[in-house]
Structure formats: structure tokens, C-alpha cells
Amino acid sequence: MNTRTVNGFFYGLFMDVDLLNEMDIQAFDLRPAFVDGYALHLGVRATLVPAEGHKAYGMVIAMTHADLDMLYGAPGLKQYRPEAVLAQVLSGDSLPALCYNLPEPPPPEEANEEYAGQLRSVLAKLKFPPEYIDSVK
What we know:
- The chain has 4 helices and 5 strands; from the N terminus they run βαββαββαα.
- The longest helix has 13 residues, at about 115-125.
- Helix content is about 25%, strand content about 40%.
- It is an alpha+beta fold.
- A hairpin with a 4-residue loop joins β4 (about 80-90) and β5 (about 95-100).
- It has helices at about 15-20, 65-70, 115-125, 130-135; strands at about 5-10, 30-40, 45-65, 80-90, 95-100.
- It has a domain at about 1-55 and about 85-95 and about 120-135.
- It has a 5-stranded antiparallel beta sheet with strand order 1-3-2-4-5.
């Protein structure tokens, strides 16, 4: 079994290590971080969209390619594609990471209040800035 890991930047419910554990995903070296030049956009699920002057918070998590494939091979997630981002770890370091996003953001009328509430809870649990948590709608 290949145990080599890569860094992923997660900004949705996959930031929650308890959820990953329930899915039998091995998460390593979790670090709170943000990416500049992106904004969180919610539809049925979350995605990041390029947005100058914005930043999106999340977690850098190391995992195997097999675990990434399992996460994003699930129903409803296959349309997400990996992109390279430079994550700014809150401790001060910056590092490259894979970030899975939709090629096109969902339309403005698409919403999921239950998902938004769950995401706010995860962000609060991880102690991200309150103004960012409040912006998740």
C-alpha cells in the first residue's frame, strides 16, 4: 500500500477530522490556513471561486492520493477538480496544496441552508475568525 501523502486544502465539511475518520480517511498534519484570492461560494455544497481581495479559510490536511480519490469519487463530488493553491498556514508558513473546486460555480439561486449551518459549526469548532463564520450563508 502506498502511504505517501500530499497536502490538500479543505474549506468545506471535509475540514472536520471526525467526519474523515467516520469515512475511514487517514488525515495527517492538520493545519489551519487560508488561501488569498479566493472566496467561498455555497450551492448544494461548497466551492472556491477566484476573487481578488478575498481570502478563504480552511485546513491543510495531508492524505494519500487513494483517500483523495475516495473522497472526490463519491456521488455528487465527481465534478470537483484539483487545482494547485498556495495555502498560508496560520502559523506563518506557506505551502502548496491541492484544492478541489467546481469548474463553474453553482448559480446564485442554488442554496443549501443545512450545509451552510453545518459548515458554520465546523468553522466555529476549528476557531476560525467569527466574521468569516458569519459570512457563510
